[in-house]
C-alpha cells in the first residue's frame, strides 16, 4: 500500500509541475525532463516557500534586502566583468565539464563562475576581488556568475531542475533594448544597465538577443526562503549534497564537481544515441520509451 501511495504522489507531483505554468513542454519532452524526476521535492519547495511562487518576483530588494549592496555597487561589478570580457575569460566550457549549461554554449551563451554553492572559485577571487567579496558578504547567494549573450544568440525554452533557489539577474552591460529579453512562463523582461529582476527558474523560460550589441549580466541563484526550519534544512541538504556536485571550473585550479567529472562519460553515450537517432528515428524512440517503461515497471514491481 505504501508503495502505491508513493507512486501516486510522484505522479501527482509530476502533473502539478507540468500544469503549473501557462507555458508547457510537449508530453514526450516533459516525460524525460529532469524537472519531472525532481517534482516531489520541488512541490515541497513551492508549498512551503516564504515568498510568492509566481514567475517573476516584483521588487527583489523588498523580499531580499540583503541583496541591495549588489545593485548599489553595480558599476564596480561591471568594471570587473568588462575586464574579464577583454581578457576573454567569459567563455564556454573548455570540455564536457558543465552539465548544467552544456547545451547553452552551442547557441552563443558564455559564463564565468564566481561561486557555486561554496566559496569563490580561486580564479574568481583572483580576477574579481571586489565582486567576490560582495558575494561572500551575502550568504543567501548560493551561486553566481557573469553571463554573456552576444548579438544573435539565444537560449532555447527550458526549465531548471530544482526549486530551492530563485534566479537574480542584474544588468551590467546590456543593449537597453526590448529586442534583448528573457521570457519566463510567457512574460517578457528586457535587461537594462543597473536594473535587476528575479524569477522562478523552474518555470519554462528562454532568452534572445536580437540586437547588434552584447549583453552581460550578474546571474545569481538565491536560496528560497522557507516557512519552516525543517523545510529550510531539507533545501540546504539537497543543495550541499546534490546541486553542489555541479561545480564547473573557469580554469585550472578551480573545483569540478562529481556530476561534471562523470559528465564526459555520459556525453560519449549521448553522442552515440544522437547518431542512432540520425540513422533510425523509429528505433531510437522505441528504445527510449522502452527504457522509460522498464524503469516504471521496475518501480512498480519493487
Automatic annotation (TrEMBL):
Superkingdom of origin organism: Bacteria
Coiled coil: none
GO molecular function: dioxygenase activity
Membrane-crossing residue ranges in chain numbering: 282-301
Keywords per UniProt: Dioxygenase, Membrane, Oxidoreductase, Transmembrane, Transmembrane helix
Annotated ranges, domain Aspartyl/asparaginy/proline hydroxylase: 72-225
Classification via Gene3D superfamilies: B-lactam Antibiotic, Isopenicillin N Synthase, Chain (2.60.120.330)
InterPro entries assigned: Asp/Arg/Pro-Hydrxlase (IPR007803), Asp/Asn_beta-hydroxylase (IPR051821), IPNS-like_sf (IPR027443), Lipid_A_LpxO-like (IPR047694)
UniProt family annotation: Belongs to the aspartyl/asparaginyl beta-hydroxylase family.
Protein name according to UniProt: Lipid A hydroxylase LpxO
Amino acid at each position: 500500500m505504501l508503495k502505491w501511495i508513493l507512486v501516486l504522489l510522484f505522479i501527482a507531483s509530476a502533473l502539478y509541475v507540468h500544469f503549473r505554468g501557462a507555458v508547457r513542454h510537449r508530453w514526450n519532452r516533459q516525460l524525460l525532463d529532469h524537472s519531472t524526476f525532481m517534482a516531489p521535492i520541488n512541490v515541497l519547495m513551492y508549498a512551503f516557500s516564504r515568498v510568492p511562487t509566481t514567475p517573476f518576483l516584483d521588487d527583489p530588494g523588498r523580499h531580499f534586502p540583503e541583496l541591495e549592496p549588489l545593485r548599489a555597487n553595480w558599476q564596480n561589478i561591471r568594471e570587473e566583468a568588462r575586464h574579464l570580457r577583454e581578457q576573454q575569460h567569459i567563455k564556454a566550457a573548455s570540455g564536457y565539464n558543465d552539465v548544467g549549461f552544456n547545451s547553452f554554449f552551442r547557441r552563443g551563451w558564455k559564463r564565468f563562475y564566481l561561486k557555486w554553492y561554496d566559496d569563490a572559485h580561486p580564479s574568481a577571487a583572483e580576477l574579481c576581488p571586489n565582486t567576490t567579496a560582495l558575494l561572500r558578504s551575502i550568504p543567501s547567494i548560493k551561486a553566481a556568475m557573469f553571463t554573456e549573450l552576444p548579438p544573435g544568440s539565444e537560449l532555447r525554452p527550458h526549465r531548471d531542475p530544482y526549486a530551492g533557489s530563485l534566479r537574480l539577474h542584474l544588468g551590467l552591460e546590456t543593449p537597453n533594448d526590448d529586442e534583448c529579453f528573457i521570457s519566463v512562463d510567457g512574460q517578457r523582461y528586457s535587461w537594462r544597465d543597473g536594473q535587476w529582476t528575479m524569477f522562478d527558474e523552474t518555470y519554462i523560460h528562454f532568452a534572445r538577443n536580437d540586437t547588434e550589441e552584447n549583453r552581460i549580466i550578474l546571474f545569481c541563484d538565491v536560496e528560497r526562503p522557507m516557512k519552516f526550519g525543517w523545510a529550510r534544512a531539507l533545501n540546504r541538504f539537497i543543495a550541499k549534497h546534490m546541486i553542489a556536485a555541479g561545480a564547473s571550473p573557469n580554469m585550472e585550479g578551480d573545483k569540478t564537481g562529481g556530476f561534471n567529472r562523470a559528465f564526459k562519460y555520459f556525453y560519449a553515450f549521448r553522442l552515440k544515441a544522437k547518431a542512432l537517432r540520425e540513422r533510425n528515428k523509429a528505433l531510437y524512440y522505441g528504445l527510449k520509451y522502452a527504457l522509460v517503461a522498464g524503469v516504471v515497471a521496475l518501480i512498480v514491481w519493487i
